[in-house]
Amino acid sequence: MDHRARAWLRQKHCAARQQTEDKASEDAKGEKSRNRVIENELRDPSNFLEFLVPRPLRLVLTGSGAASCLIATVITGTQLLADLRYGGSGDAIPTVAINAAGGLLFAALFTADQRAADTRISRRDKVRKAQIGTGDREVYVNKDGERMSRLREVDSDWIIRRLERWGKRDRMPFIGPEKGALLQRIIRERQPRQVVEVGSMAGYSALTMAQALGPDGQVISLESDWKWALAAKRFVWQATQGDKSSKPADQQCGRVDVWVGNAIDKIPQQFVSRPPIDLLFLDGTPNETLAYLKAAEPFLAKGATVVADNAAIFAEGGMKPYLEYVRSDDRYTSKLMKCKLEWNDEVEDGLEVSQYMPPGAL
Ligand SMILES: C[S@@+](CC[C@H](N)C(=O)[O-])C[C@H]1O[C@@H](n2cnc3c(N)ncnc32)[C@H](O)[C@@H]1O
């Protein structure tokens, strides 16, 4: 075979392979769009009848019902007109009316079904867009170059974002992102092993602190209200359900322990035989803050950091005795880290950050 014949054969072979590949990719696309229709169908049904009769079949039934009634209306109507023109009695009037009513009924069913599907699809689109906006859904391009979206895995970031949305919407007293970032900075700088929090509520601050822990850090969060304690335990558990191998932050959230009880009693009972507290975060009831500190003081490590929330907004109220104590006692070096109140950029607040250094400790 000469080289021209071989080149011709090669071209032909390539063209044939290209055609096969094109066909395969068209088949795959067709298959995918069919799968999507089926998926929509499986997600759409809202009652038993809709499960039994899929939408395409319903549309065929109602559409063909409407069309046949319309044709029957035209035929019986024409016969009726001819009958009336030749002095007939108009006996066919009920038949025409029944046909027309059937046509209207089927057409209404057809339109309602179609509209309901459009509404469901646009509602799903809205939900998807909202999820993309909150960061719970990510957009990606698949191997066929199509823009797709998928829900992000539930992990600690996901739970923290969810709690932030809740906090913002209902003005919940979670510390919020700005104070959260300050706390994380303190934890990263000081690398505490034993972190103790008073006031878990839903676990927002405990999770935020846990994300910044070092390899041997642990958070014990105390909550006096058992309903909040349960909520915090649930969110902590959810936060650890992501792909742990690739996200150390999620693993660290697994080192949050929520304890139920009044911190003022629980700390002295439980910390006698535990490692000393390296970081104490006080965020319970403002006018009890000094009592929390006094309960925890015997268990503070030398050089421990004590952080108290709402040190500016309640400076002249519930936090006053606490602030006077840490600012006047020689064992503490204390300063206010100014920031905004959670969920409200117009209100000033702050964290009181105090270093505990009892005499002789160096
Ligand atoms: C401001 S919220 C805590 C918010 C949480 N630290 C956050 O940022 O997500 C105060 C919580 O402290 C709890 N609490 C109040 N007094 C307490 C006490 N004596 N011991 C333990 N928890 C207490 C309350 O039930 C409430 O859930």
TrEMBL record:
Region (Disordered): 16-36
Short name of any one Pfam family annotated for the protein: Methyltransf_3
Classification via InterPro entries: SAM-dependent_MTases_sf, SAM_O-MeTrfase
Domain of life: Eukaryota
Regions of compositional bias (Basic and acidic residues) in chain numbering: 19-36
Keyword field contains Transmembrane: yes
GO molecular function: catechol O-methyltransferase activity
Keyword set, alphabetical order: Catecholamine metabolism, Membrane, Methyltransferase, S-adenosyl-L-methionine, Transferase, Transmembrane, Transmembrane helix
Matching Gene3D superfamilies: Vaccinia Virus protein VP39
GO BP annotations listed: catecholamine metabolic process; methylation
Enzyme Commission number: 2.1.1.6
Record flagged with keyword S-adenosyl-L-methionine: yes
Membrane-crossing residue ranges in chain numbering: 59-80, 92-112
Family to which the UniProt record says this protein belongs: Belongs to the class I-like SAM-binding methyltransferase superfamily. Cation-dependent O-methyltransferase family.
Protein name as catalogued: catechol O-methyltransferase
Organism: Coccomyxa viridis
